Amino acid sequence: MVNRALQGFLTTTYGEDVWAEVRSQAGLTFDDFEAMLRYPDAMTSACFHAAAHVLHKDLGALLEDFGIWLVTDRHLEPLRRLLRFSGAHFEDFLYALEDLDERGRLVLPDLDLPQITVTRADGGRFLIDAAWPLPGAGAILTGCLRAMADDYGTLAFVNLGTIAENGMERLDIQLFDAAFSKGRRFELAQVRR
Questions:
Q1: Backbone angles phi and psi of 68, in degrees to 5
Q2: Rounded mean pLDDT of 114-128?
Q3: Which of 2, 108, 100 lies closest to 45, judged by CA?
Q4: Can you give the pTM of this predicted structure?
Q5: For residues 138 and 160, is the Cβ–Cβ distance under 8 A?
Q6: Angle between helices 77-84 and 137-152 (to 10 degrees)
Q7: Distance separating alpha carbons of residues 76 and 62, to the nearest angstrom
Q8: Nearest to 158 by CA among 193, 125, 188, 185
Q9: What residues contact residue 127 under an 8 Å CB cut-off, 6+ apart?
Q10: Pairing of strands 169-177, 125-131
Q11: What would the pLDDT profile of 64-106 be if each residue is shown by its tens digit?
């Protein structure tokens, strides 16, 4: 799923020619990832690095953009809705991140999401630890959380902090104003038009 999403991000944001160059530089022998197939982590990592090289972007910045796209692209509205079911407020959403891996596996048993631990600190501050076999979970999560804070209308500072030797990546989130703006409309029942 991550590979297919990366392909979607690159083709919709930058075009098919960029995806073709990324495929070539990553050494892929096929045109498209299949959403339900498992691919080696090394192949995913090669695609991340090739995309950063082709686009002349820092890898962390590219992965953060990818995280934002996962939440904001109109074709991925079901993912946004799934995330918004985590709570009525952004703070509720943050606490629910610890269950994200299990909830994802209910829908797709082979889905491999980061293991997330949320710790509340003083003064509206949260520390989020994310462990994933591939480096980059923290940058992707940073983008997702920034987009979700906007979605909820919350003013928050999301910063990717340290990366431990065991691959654990830590995010530092400071909530400033839970009702900073109106946020995007969300209703439990999806309105069909």
A1: -65, -45
A2: 91
A3: 2
A4: 0.88
A5: yes
A6: 80
A7: 18
A8: 125
A9: 118, 119, 121, 170, 171, 172, 173
A10: antiparallel
A11: 999 999 999 988 887 777 787 778 889 999 999 998 888 777 7
Q: Which residues contact 20 (CB under 8 A, 6 or more apart)?
A: none
Name 151's Cβ contacts closer than 8 Å, sequence gap at least 6.
71, 80, 84, 183, 184, 186
Structure tokens at 58: 């820092």
Report the DSSP beta bridge partners of residue 101. Answer: none
Residue owning tokens 């940073």 = 142
* Residue 131: φ, ψ to 5°: -115, 130
Question: Token digits for 123?
Answer: 């003064």
Q: Which two three-digit tokens encode residue 24?
A: 């070539």
Across all residues in the chain, what is the average pLDDT? Answer: 87
Quote the tokens at residue 184: 């995007």
Beta carbons within 10 angstroms of residue 122's beta carbon: 5
Q: Output the DSSP codes for the chain.
A: -HHHHHHHHHHHHH-HHHHHHHHHHHT-SSS---TTS---HHHHHHHHHHHHHHHT--HHHHHHHHHHHHHH-GGGHHHHHHHHTT-SSHHHHHHHGGGHHHHHHHH-TT--PPEEEEEE-SSSEEEEEEE-SSTTHHHHHHHHHHHHHHHHT-EEEEEEEEE-TTS-EEEEEEEEETTSS------SSPPP-
